[in-house]
Amino acid sequence: MASTAIVWLRRDLRVHDHPALHAAAAEFEHVVPLFVADARLTGGRFASAPRAAFLRGCLADLDAALAERGAGLVVRDGRPEELIPALAAQVGAAAVLWTSDVSPFARARDRAVTAALSAAGIAARPCPGNYLADISRPRTKTGKPFTVFTPFWKAERELERRSPLPAPGRLRLPAGLERGAPAPGPELADVLPEPFTVPGETAGRAAMAAWLDGPVDAYAARHDDLSGGTSGLSPHLRWGTISPRELEQRTLDRGGEGAAAFARQLAWRDFYAHVLLSFPDNARLEFQPRFRALAWHEDAAALRAWQEGRTGYPLVDAGMRQLAATGWMHNRARMVVGSFLTKDLHLDWRAGEAWFARLLLDGEPAQNNGNWQWIASTGVDPAPYFRRIFNPVLQQRKFDPQGAYVRRWVPELANVPLERLAEPWSMSAEEQAAAGCVIGRDYPAPIVDHAEERRVAIDRYRAVSA
Ligand SMILES: Cc1cc2nc3c(=O)[nH]c(=O)nc-3n(C[C@H](O)[C@H](O)[C@H](O)COP(=O)(O)OP(=O)(O)OC[C@H]3O[C@@H](n4cnc5c(N)ncnc54)[C@H](O)[C@@H]3O)c2cc1C
Questions:
Q1: What is the pLDDT of residues 221-275, one digit of tens each?
Q2: From ligand 1's centre to the CA of 265, what distance in Å?
Q3: Which CATH class is domain 131-161+200-278?
Q4: Which fold has domain 289-463?
Q5: Residue spans of alpha helices (H) in 279-391
Q6: How many angstroms separate the CA atoms of 264 and 259, rounded?
Q7: Which among 46, 72, 269 is positioned nearest to 172, based on CA atoms?
Q8: Do 11 and 130 meet the contact criterion of CB atoms below 8 Å apart?
Q9: Superfamily of domain 4-129 in the CATH hierarchy
Q10: What residue's CA is closest to ligand 1, atom 38?
Q11: Is any atom of ligand 1 closer than 6 Å to the C-beta of 269?
């Protein structure tokens, strides 16, 4: 009987530089590339219509890439720990390979699948592929996981790297296997007015090549510009439609200051994966126990104003509207809106995390949680809370100096003069009339006073910091 392996694809939806797929194609005569549609993910705590549509697009592209190589994607609905051993028995698979992952959900699921496979005498083979290196390995001098980025980055930099792998040549499915197909659903354009990017490896590789062909050189200087300057590759990294390791290698091969800064930034993704892997309780709780005593305000109207981009602070509103329209937000805006939610509105960072998880195409537990805890000052990073209270007016002046970002996403402010754009409420009645933007009618008055709320936030954090 021909040897057979299953490659269980999850958020590694590519054929290039895919260690599990590459190994299966090299070692086994038949390969079953399998995707399991798990209702706990599509309908659970982190369900997201934009990501579900993005996923469907990625699966269609992957199916085509696999079909070109002689095998299409095999799709099943159900619980992986039941379905995978059953399929392995059906096709006589000796091994199931997959790309390892870090979230508490993913690890519990993978343990259950491993146990079921072991009981059936089938090899379970987790492989690398989601990160630059083995994120479980970096340790401090005292043998602990890292809780600060820079020393983590220095340690990870020293770890050996895989060489990027080519896409497999020919793949053969076992004869007579029914393939199945993902359940149909809306297109990305049906759930987002202006989708940020096109799903799938084909689009991901094109975006990676375009980024590395020039724009990356300006990354160090331009990454904080709200109107551009970053790669926009995060949804593709999230879904594995590009390989982080291949991206890193090609970035280093390009060389230069921009590329070096970009390669360092990629390591933040590994850092937060390392953090969640090491401290799984972070998924629900503040990393710093003292901040678990913070009593967050409950204010449904304020939360809604934030979600809908109606706070009266132009940069906050621009970011939140960019998110709702495109499924993505610039990192600088993410920090500003995160600071505003937790330090101006005093609302629970978990409410922000959940809203982001619902809309972000790149939304995923390790990155979303790590960054939300960073901006709420509750996380692994030791900077004091009073340093991370962002002034939305100053941030706008600094990172959107010509007002292009704010005018793009908050069209009510299109004709507000630049010198008033960060504080439109400071316009006189005449100026408001001339700009066609009456505060309180065409655009909201600020829902809180930043200077005042900053003091409140400091008192709140100080009170539990003893
Ligand atoms: C409150 C908040 C929530 C966030 N939630 C997520 C999330 O759910 N998923 C996510 O991928 N990123 C998240 N980020 C991090 C960051 O904003 C995005 O990774 C970045 O904006 C993606 O755009 P880009 O690909 O153009 O980034 P680039 O600047 O081009 O960076 C390249 C890649 O490096 C990685 N990266 C860059 N910055 C960070 C960072 N701060 N943390 C981790 N990885 C980083 C990403 O994979 C990114 O695609 C969050 C940031 C904040 C402040």
A1: 999 999 999 999 999 999 999 999 999 999 999 999 999 999 999 999 999 999 9
A2: 9
A3: mainly alpha
A4: DNA Cyclobutane Dipyrimidine Photolyase, subunit A; domain 3 (1.10.579)
A5: 300-308, 314-326, 331-339, 349-359, 365-375
A6: 9
A7: 72
A8: yes
A9: HUPs (3.40.50.620)
A10: 265
A11: yes
